[in-house]
Each structure stands twice: as structure tokens, then as C-alpha cells.
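Input chain follows. Return C-alpha cells only.
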Amino acid sequence: MNLAIIGTGYVGLTTGTCFAEVGHNVVCVDNNAKKIDMLSHGEMPIYEPDLEEMIVSNVSAGRLHFSTNLAEAVKCSEIIFIAVPTPPHEDGSVDLSYIEEVSHAIADTLSPELGYRIIVDKSTVPVSTGDRVSEVIARYAPDEVDIDVVSNPEFLREGSAVSDLMNPDRVVIGADSQRAMDMMKRVYQPFNAPIVEVDLPSAEMIKHAANSFLALKISYINAVSAVCEKAGADVEQVAMGIGMDKRISRHFLNAGLGYGGSCFPKDVKGFINIADKLGAPLNILKEVEHINNRQCERFIERIRQKLWVLRNKRIAVWGIAFKQNTDDVRESVAVKIIRRLCDEGSIVTAYDPKAAESGALALQGYPVTISQDMYECTRDAEVLIVATEWRQFAMANLPKVRELMRLPIIFDGRNIIHGENAVSAGFEYHSVGRKSLYPAK
């Protein structure tokens, strides 16, 4: 099929590339000429495992194209996916100006001569957005155009987006016509995934409800971790015990510094705002936000208690990205911690295997040193903080780290370092929701 993807961010670029991988002819459109030029020359604007190789392969095969010409893409494509940013406003409501702008541009290009077209909301949007897109199309396109508007929310995790799209748990399609539903099912037929056929508002609701529930699980286990610390229990053992219940599962029951990134914070706020506007408040999600914010504060308080005063203390931070396998620092808890430490006068050195450049931009104006080596990052540090769950941090040579650091103190905000190994290397080891460990005297 001939498909157009409007927007080449994480969602649009990955979606378009994976569609090309299974045989569709795809044009990815963006109004950022510099980005399109980069992609056309095989340069990546983001880091995502396996994506670069897949882009190069499909461009070479002639199935994947990049363009700034939206009108031409609409004319040549049976289905047009809108995958532009939907950033949050201060009150949690979603900025839909990019959606409106693209919808208007599509409407200006449509004509009866083009034949039937499907416009798909791929971006995460509040319920009723599909109706608004239909209104824009009706307002600016000729009366005789033949179109349907569909909701097809994405469920990609940064760091495993390619795998998630190539092997999806399910594909949600919200459509009000059988013709649109049948064509959308053809798009996803090569993926061999369960198709969830629903109406338009239900599809729009599913994405917000799903991400908010996952955020709830994270905040729940983090709330439990605070109780475990007081009771002398081990949150990892508790999570294992409750996660073996098939009704609960172990997924997203990992105590740590809390959730971040471009999806969970925005989607939780967005769902709260949607529910409030509809007169059906989701107060449980307001507590989810409170717990998530408090988790970071609790962690910093514990470091402060250990060092007494943070001013002029040398602190190494492993991790800047909001999670492993990405260079994305949006709403990164690691960035928040670094900023807080700098505000209190700490001398901070940070390292991340992929987010050095994006991290430097996010930390502009803060007196933090970005190191190019994870071990040099720890030189003369009085505390090492593990803020992102990169595998190489879990596998670090701890005796080497101990030789470099001034004081032997680790605060593992992701519970990825083996505590006994840290103690054997001479460290006192502090994690989340577990007993602190100290070397024998």
C-alpha cells in the first residue's frame, strides 16, 4: 500500500520505517528541511536500537522516502498518518495546534479527483480529537471529497520501539466505517498481530488509559518501597511475590526513581485533564503524580542525610537519559536530580553512553561536567548515583570505581547493581526499597 507519515519524531520515523520493512511504500514528511536532508543521507536525528540499519535498508530498496512536500505525499498515498507532536500545556491539557495545522494542510490538498483517503491520528490525542480533525477537513476541503478519519494509537517504548512495532501485543483501530476498518487491517496484516476493532472515541481513550495504568503500577511499587525501607523488607522480593500473581504480573513493578520520558508524565496529566473536563475526576492519578514526584525528593533527602551538606560535594551521576537504550532526556528523572544537586551547590559530573549531547542541552546553564567515560566520571567523587538503568552500569568494574572515588558510597536509584558485589568492592550500598549494605569493619 502507499502510505504517508506526517512527522518524523520517534513515533513517525519508527512507524514509517517498520511499515516499509513489511513491504509498504512509505513517504515520511516533515517541515524540518534539515532533518529530512539528514535522513535522506542516512544520518539519524535520534538514537533507537536497530532503526538506523532498517532505514538504510529500506531507502536502498526504494520503499522508504523522505520529503518536505506534504501535498505531494497526500496525493500519492491511500492512507495519511498524522504523527506530529502533541505537547502538554501547563494545566495538563494537550496542545493540538500541530494536529490542526496538518489537518488543514491535508484538507487544502484533497480533491474529489484523488479518490478515497483515510486520515489517521497516530499521535497521542485526547478523546474527541478525531471529530475535530473531521471538522477541519469538512471546513477547508471541497464538499465532494471522500475521506474517513481513524484513530490508531501507538504503543511504542523508546529503546525497544522497532521490536514493539514489528511484534505488537495488539493493534488498536478506531473507525466509524467498515471500509476504513478493512483498509487499516490490510496495513497491519503483515504484522500478524491481534486487531482490536473499536469506535473512534474508545481508541482515543485506550492509549491514555493504558499508559496511566502503567504509571500507576510504577507509583504503587514505589510507594511500597518507602514502606519496605521503614519495615526492613526487600521491595524486590515483594515485587517478585506479588508479580507472580497472573492477575498482576511482574511487569512495571520495578522500584526506583520514578517514571519519566515523553509519554507517561504527559499522558497522566492529559488523562487527568480530560477526566476533569468531563466531570469524572480521576483523583487516583493525581496521587500517582504525587508519589512519582515524591520518589525523587526522597532519594535526594537520603543522599543529603548521608553527606549532611550537599554544597561543594563531588557527586558522580551515571545516566542522563530517562531510560536505557535511548538518548531522550525529556522529563528525565536523572536530569531533575542533576539540576537539584547543582542548585544546592554540588560539583556534579555526569555520564551517559548515548545522551551526552541531548543531556548537555537539557542541562545548559547548570555547572555540570559531562564526562566521556563512565569511570573517569567517578574520579574523586564522594557519592556515585546510578540514575538510568543502562546495562553497562550494572556490569561495571566496581573495584576500579572504588580506586577512583574519594568516598566509597553508591546510591543506586535503579536497583541494578548487585549489592553484595558493591560491598565486596568496599562500598556502602544504598538502593530503593531495600536495606542499605555496609562493608565489614
